[in-house]
Write a structure and sequence with these properties.
280 residues, alpha/beta, Rossmann fold, seven-stranded parallel β-sheet, 9 helices, 41% helix, globular
């Protein structure tokens, strides 16, 4: 973690809160020397640094445990849970797992998203479409379905959904774009449904980020050198001609999770170095 944002000291902005971070593990990077951090892991570590107890949730138990281990090694409070968010039986256990370890959840951070195999509608295998929607949208519906009642019973909280600028920007990836647009619509729906329950629901649309999944996954799929991919992606970012990092997304999530954002709900926040400002 060489990014300066990774080393800032905490100030207790989430003291006393309990966070479920879904997708808290991360995929392999672009090589053995890749030290970049993924969005879910960065959010987990930052939430804990700011005082929250974190339940790090991931389908990959080992990766979730690594995230929890990094937090506890740094003096924070965390535990790991292996849950496949496309399996409702497993998701339904999340509130009780959280309550047994730390108490009822007051923050839900939905970070899971995939796009593997995506392409234009006319050349796409329909199974790819269905899988992407099952993970990116239905999985988020399931976590909200089962965590929101516990959050309501606790008196309120904050939900942060990770979307993407692909929801609004031009991209050849039909399923990923459509699924992220659905995440934005779901966020608006949930925000309106939970005003009276003191639950705020917002989404973040990251732009081009230097994360293990973005660089490692795309460079492997396209058969190009990771550094070459980084260079080409950097050139596409208006602000500073440099991609963001997972810490940029995590700090936006921290604000939305904190009481500083107590009057903000239903917002879709771009964290994209100005990419969407070019539209319109």
């Amino acid at each position: 973690m060489t990014d300066e944002l990774a080393h800032r000291a905490g100030s207790g902005r989430l003291e006393g809160k309990v966070a479920i971070v879904v997708g808290a593990g991360q995929s392999a990077g672009s090589g053995p020397d890749d030290t970049t951090v993924g969005n879910g892991r960065a959010a987990s570590m930052l939430f804990a640094r700011e005082g929250a107890a974190v339940l790090a949730v991931d389908r990959d138990e080992r990766s979730a445990q690594q995230t929890a281990g990094l937090i506890t090694e740094a003096g924070g409070t965390a535990a790991a849970a292996a849950v496949d968010i496309t399996n409702e039986t497993q998701v339904a256990l999340l509130p009780s797992i959280c309550a047994e370890r730390f108490g009822p959840p007051t923050i839900l951070h939905n970070n899971v998203g995939i796009g593997r195999g995506d392409r234009s509608v006319t050349s796409m295998d329909i199974d790819v479409w269905e899988t992407i929607f099952k993970v990116n949208v239905t999985g988020m519906v399931l976590t909200c379905k089962h965590v929101i009642p516990a959050m309501r019973a606790a008196g309120g909280g904050s939900i942060i959904n990770i979307s993407s600028v692909a929801a609004e920007a031009s991209t050849p990836l039909a399923a990923y774009k459509s699924s992220k647009a659905a995440v934005n619509a779901l966020t608006h729906n949930l925000a309106n449904a939970n005003f009276r329950h003191n639950i705020r629901v917002n989404a973040i649309m990251p732009g081009l980020m230097d994360t293990p999944m973005a660089i490692g996954g795309h460079s492997s799929a396209r058969g190009i050198d990771p550094d070459e991919l980084r260079t080409s992606r950097d050139k596409m970012v208006p602000f500073g001609a440099k991609q963001g990092t997972a810490w940029d997304t995590a700090y936006a999530a921290l604000f939305l999770a904190s009481d500083e954002a107590r009057f903000i709900t239903g917002v879709i926040l771009p964290v994209d170095g100005g990419q969407l400002s070019r539209i319109g």
